[in-house]
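Researcher: Quick sanity check before group meeting.
Model: Go ahead. Protein one:
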Amino acid sequence: MQDWPLRVMRLVDHAEREHGEGEIVTAWADGSVTRTNWRAVAHDARRMAQALEALGCRKGDRIATLAMNHSRHLSSWYGAAGMGGVLHTINPRLFPDQLEYIANHAEDRVLLYDHAFAPLVEAMKPRWTTIERYICFDPPANGVGDTGFMEWIGEQDGDYAWVEGDERDPVGLCYTSGTTGNPKGVLYEHRSTMLHTLAEAAPDIFNLSKQSVVLPIVPMFHANAWGVPWAAPMMGCKLVLSADYRPDTMCRLFREEKVTHSAGVPTIWLTMIDYLERSGDKLSDLKQVTIGGSAAPRAMIRWFLEHGIEVGHAWGMTETSPIGTCGSRPLGWENYSIDEKVEYISRQGRVPFGVELRTVDEDGNALPRDGKSSGNLQCRGPWVIRRYFKAEEDATDEDQWFDTGDVACLHPDGTMQITDRAKDVIKSGGEWISSIELENAAVGFAGVAEAAAIGIAHPKWDERPLLVVVRQEGCDICPDALRSHLATKVAKWWLPDAIEFVDELPHTATGKLSKKMLRERFSAYRFADADARLEELRR
């Protein structure tokens, strides 16, 4: 058979050749809408590859983006990959110290960014030591600031042949949220990305086709936008991108562009459903929704089903590219009652070909698939991480099993259900908050003897942090002052929704802080005004 290396540029080549007029719609932050197609995206990608080489960039160099979802960002993915570079998507929600670390650790040479992030970029420029050139995707009309993207690539003619190489060459880099210590880089390969893409379009995963109109409500800086920018050109989907996630904007795009497929975290869907119920608007063309990032409330699953929309859970992480499982339907699904369907979909789905799952006990012994035995969830496969970027040791065991940090059980039919998390982290709106870093920041405030952060159920964000504090003897701490101190140490969205003062925190026999006992102690705790909505969702 012919040798045809699995490199991602073949995706955009295919789209250009077979789906050239396939539409790509962008709703920009200023409210404007632009339209382009796969042929133009491929052309812009070639011009960008030329422009990078003109800057002296070469194969293996890291090219960073700090941007939301739009067609220019899409072109930059293929432009960076096309000249043999490694695309590093940076999460603008990270705290400045983390932004400094990951860009310098990645040794990024070029940064392309949205004008909305210009103040952040200007503040970070003195701290980013390896970035040589800054390009603004959407510069202001007055021309003040860094070179604009279209102006930059406009100097090139697009007569360019993609850099070839081994299919195991790196193509992308994404850092985890750094729940313990510094963020860790996950380096994706052309081969791993292509195999993940082939799986994603399958009927039991995202069910994509030429007739699909896809609007991912997940940012391109987060875990490859769940692979949609790679899968859409393979299938020739119409792609709708937006930098504005407000529900009225989203619903307008769904309606006007006749969106059939979408994916996002539960927080986004809660906001959308609330808006639809209040406004009376409808998503008439929407056929399939994929929910990931955190568990979807049963009431949300039921709402989609009752409105004739197929809904499925997906589970994954940065380290799994990110798809690990997705909600496929069993034989005889049409005979399930609505309650049975809701219960089934509330699980995190089944693995596609290319992923293996198992659960193990504390001694590493594999547990049965009985739907009752919970253990540490491990996975392996060709798009699952083996070693973090620049790490000296593998992140897997000798049999290539990667420990996800989740606790789960596997059912006899192969469906997986997350039951707990092994790490002391808080998941809010699909993003991790490090309880350890929040605690360390709190203890650095005068008068705090000890602090612990735990996740409390929240109707919109899944979880939000509660900070439990022990005062030093004789000290009177003002909660507002402590919150102001934390605001200088952690990202704004990490700040606790409430601070409670206690005489002491629970500890284990070895002197370690017991989060388990603390969560039990505050199991009935509710944030102000959240309890009624939470009970409604649980029903």
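Researcher: Fine. The other one?
Model: Protein two, sequence then structure:
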Amino acid sequence: MEEPRKTFSTSDGCVSDVVTEKYLVRSQESASHVQLACCGRCCAFPLDGNQLCVWDVEGPSHQLLTLHGHCQSVTALAFGNRVNPLLLCSGALDCVMVWNLDACRKKLLQGLTPRATVLGTLLGKVLCLRFGPDDHAVAVGAGNRILVRDTEDQSVLGELEGHVGPVTAVEFCPWQADVVISVSEDRSFKVWDLSRESLLYSSSVLTACPLLSLYLEAGSKQLVTGSADGQLWIFSLAERHRYRLVAHMDLRKRREAFFTRRLKSRLCTLPGERQLRSTNEPEREEVEATLPILSFGHCDLSPVLNSECGLASCASQNSRHLWIGSTAGLFMLNLANFDLEAVLQYKDFRSLSIRVAGSCAVMSGAHEHKAVCLLTSLFGNEIAVLDIDVVALLRSQGSLAAGRSLSVLASSCVSPTSPLYCGTVKGKRTKPVSQTQPAVRSVIKDQPLVFHSKVRSSGYTAAPCVNMFAPKTNNRKDGKRPSKCRNSYRCKDYPWENSIPTKPGQQVTVAHKPAAVCCIQYSGDGRGLACGLANHLSLVFDASLTGTPTVFPGHDAAVSTICWSHDQKWLLSVAQDGALRVWSRRRAELLLLLGKDVFPRPVHSAQFYFVDAFLLLSSGPDVRLLQYHLDTCRDELKRYKPRSSFKPVHRLSVASGADLTSLSAVNGFHSHIVLAAARDRSLEVFDLNAGCSAAVIAEAHSRPVHQICQNQGSPFAAQQSPAYDLFLTTATGDGVRLWDLRTLRCERRFEGHPSRCYPCGVAFSPCGRFVACGAEDRHAYVYEMGSSTFSHRLPGHTDTVTRVAFSPSAAQLVTAILDGKLQLFHAE
């Protein structure tokens, strides 16, 4: 037995503050491929084959508890769930035993030999063990059977048969005591009803390699399983989800993406360790062809994030994390966004005794800032216990970055040097000269006989006036607004209860010939729905999709962007020909045209900004801010001569120089933040109050982002202030991601909808509780913000759902279909 020792850095000789090798044992027999046991207080491992060693993490480092009882080599170990008394179950080819560790320590102090309770003998090769929630039962995976034994009277509670390969992991369901879940080398998982000894569900074959590990997340009711080829699956075990697949990922690809993000974000490497290699360099020391997932461990980061004041948002503090133990290292997975928060590779610490693990068990320690990892060597006989500082690990890899002050809500007034300043003083301009200097004599010039733009009728064709005066006798004030004002704006609150629109309603075809609907948007009052078509037209429907729509012709290509002004008077449209047009909503006529010759590059997307004070658009790699003037008083005799104008105010370019693919900013209230997505898969945040770039998020998706959707709320629904800092991004083939502007982190990922080839849109609900998105399987999907799997799947479509939009004033959802139809959904 060797004394505990710490790992030292090979570069400068300093003690590493991330990982410490607390204990190292060399056994006479290899303990590789043995189910190890690790809890927040103790670690248990086999020594010399048939001996059991229990090391107390809280006690002195040299104090070990050695237990003798097995004649054959121990193949599986498991701790109980209760702390007092703490039970340990050990399985071997000869028998399965349960040890009371507190009683064993007392007997050793008395000079007696500890004894265990034998649950069964000659059960076969035991590969996995697991205690029930109350420690009254133990599930034993022996061969392709699962034997459940009572720990008190050693009776048989059940025998579950159905796997065609050896059972590699078994778990009791935390929220259903009679449910047992198992995985096997037959590459499937099964759900059992222990009370009836029957099979509830059997999955299909998930992969070509055996499933090795299993974990149940009680908070989200999810099942996590990993295979020998590094594949990881997450299934939902909620009753109405019917074992739905939530996410599937490759651990090796997640690791490469993690290192790529670190490299592009210019983060520091682990302190005192060697430089991490670039993902493009060949890894000469790489041993494993894959990353087998050996085990899972509970990881609670709430105390860590709470102690780091200002470094994490509420969404980050409530997220769930999971330790993944593999042959090459430990990985910390965020179960909300399915990204790796930290990677600890054994080979990066050259003083560690074990570089390639054969078995692994990891668990958060007694102090939540620490984690304990128990390793056995794959090629040797070493057994090591590692102490990991979670805070130091997260800091060294940039997961706990310095807090930022970015927010969509403006926290200060507009600076006089800001490009937005001219929009704030627009209402304070001096009056024209003809009004401010009345004393100056006006010179009457020669004019034609008829010089008025509009000539009034002489009255000969009008009906004679009979009543000269007719007073209003039914005028009621009662402190209320006139009926005209009251009907022009709905002051009804958004329905919070039963606000999920799932019932199909009206469906309309937007054109006589099939034309795809490229974009849709509701007006701010919820009365109008604008949509852009692939046949060069823009239409405005009534919110109920009834009646004849208003047509806005004029574009030469498919309309890719449609946008309402804040006061619902104007409509903006951008087509794929690069032209931008601003229309009068009431008269359906063109007021402003920015053609292809105005900017060096075609306009890709545009919108009204800063409560209609500016036009914000993207052209190539640039974000341009324009001040505009719309003249509605047209000369009837000179209609061909437009009098509307615009003036460039400011231009910003993305750091990478790549073309922009999406642009978003809040127009419902004054905000200084503009979000832009580039073709190099990056997101950039611009602060127009400072007139510069504020932050860059590298590798936001695996493909370029085609839509950014901000939570802009609604005049009919109130939300908390932090909710407005959330925004969505979506990319073809990479799902939907939820981001928090305050931390610039992905807080959740939604991947349950198929969108592999066609860019499908996404939208926030006015209440901020739901996210809707289109899909290629002729359905629309609705997610709850607190869940990674969809809550509703909306049928009734005849083709790919390209765009979705929530009504701001009612519980309604409109979906756009690729074959040129609009489908309305409303609440039950």
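Researcher: One line on it for the slide.
Model: The chain has a mean pLDDT of 84.
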